[in-house]
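If it is no trouble, can you show me the amino acids of a protein and the tokens describing how it folds?
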Amino acid sequence: MRAAPEPAALTPDVERIQGRTVRVLMTTQALGGIGMSAGFAVAALLARDVSGQESLAGWAQTTQMIGAAAATSLIARWMSRRGRRFGLVRGYAIAVLGAIVCVAGGALRLFPVLLAGTTLLGAGQACNNQTRYAATDLAEPGHQGRTMSLVVWTATIGSVLGPNLVGPGAVLAEAVGLPPKTGAFLFGVAGMALAGLILSWALRPDPLLLARRLRGIEAGQVRHTGARQGWAVTAQLPVVRAAAVALALNHAVMVAVMIMTPIHMDHGGAELTVIGLVISGHVLGMFAFAPVVGWAVDRFGPAPMLVVAVTVHLVALGLAGSAHAGASIHLAIGLFLLGLAWSFGMIAASTIINRHTPALHRPAVQGLTDSATALTAAAAGIVSGLVMAGPGFAVLNVFAAILTLGVLWAAVRAWPGNPDGAPRVT
């Protein structure tokens, strides 16, 4: 299974287009980050209030992950056939509708309506995730990790700002007669709508379609790059399968602990503003150091960086799991390191997938692995809610630590000395 080789270097004109593409994607990633993280910080609390049961609090993020999985598959199909712009714009439109439905569910205190909204909102997460791959379509060989990391890093702006809009969102919601916890979703509507509009106008030429033309990939070949072909390609590439496992479990570890942290803090009487600050610190860890992580992935290789991810995860889980309910420095540091570990794991695993997948089939494989990641995180969200309602937050961190063993296994499978880790053609 071979595809046309990557160009050795970008021509000046393509280099200019790539620079503009990355700048556009960085801008929309920041706006999309505001849209997603603003509501994400209070989703579990709103679900608990509307449902009246703490054991159901995790369903807000769980349905969002399920929605992200379904939307990723759909968006990947759109992108594979009609380009990145077509898929991303429509994905953000679905997410905007989801944020509006979330507000309606909270206002009407209808739990099924709220979950319908969070499911649709998952399309925004799918767009944010797929944006990192769009940045690499025209990237030079050996620079995919750092190029991807630039777009991931820009999410810092929106994703750190988003949770801190919880307080202003509550004021805005009360001013218009809505429940306080629905206000963050109003900011989400604005951020994601603006991201979609900018993509529709500025992401020209489409990076994926241009990259295909440069590699001599004809339109007739693209008709055979759907989800089924993505499965077939992944099945034939052991290192891609290992990276997919790492990507999924790395995300599940982060989600399982992060979504229950507001509940743990609420048990200790922490205010919404303080909860927002801790989640902001966590998101800062996820995105702020991405350029350094991307450089390290390109310099030292993605498999060693997966080992770094596992190590930092274990330290983070030890700190968070031993922290008392409410606000504490151990919890804040633990959540920050949890985000940093996620950054190492996500960029490393994504780079492996990019490097080892033939160019023609990348959108299908990228969509498949992101869908699997979202579904794994959804399962982790369900388990986290049950564990939080039973044994508690400390045991939840032990459960998450066990999941990191799967990331370590994937690192061994993808290690350069392993026959399955040998570079594949691109």
